[in-house]
């Protein structure tokens, strides 16, 4: 028996691949390991917790040790993520002022 991915899964995977390709230099500048951006699900987990909380991560990579320059690239990556149409949620991995700024832009009226 073979397994076929749904058309929606295929579209989502292609969309994620395009996003990663367009953001490659920013991802490199942040120092994020490949595991964090392996899928939109992994990236969501990372944004929600500042680390991979629901996926195995032997490196235990987190936002905390990022330099200020890396953190600013990370903020730009997160902003690009929501600007690309991914559903808004509060990215706890970001500092409160950055969360508020992005909330004002992407969350819409309360």
Describe this entry's structure for a reader.
The protein is mostly helical and 110 residues long. It has one domain. 55% of the residues lie in helices and 0% in strands. The chain has 5 helices and no strands. It has helices at 7-22, 24-30, 40-49, 68-83, 96-106. Helix 2 (24-30) runs antiparallel to helix 4 (68-83). It is globular. It starts with 6 loop residues before the first helix and ends with a helix.
Provide a brief overview of the structure.
With 110 residues, the chain is mostly helical. It has helices at 7-22, 24-30, 40-49, 68-83, 96-106.
Global mean pLDDT: 89
The termini sit apart by: 47 Å
The outline comes out as globular
Number of individual domains: 1
**How much of the residues is beta strand, in percent?**
under 5%
Low-confidence stretches: none
Task: Give the SSE map.
Elements: H1 7-22, H2 24-30, H3 40-49, H4 68-83, H5 96-106
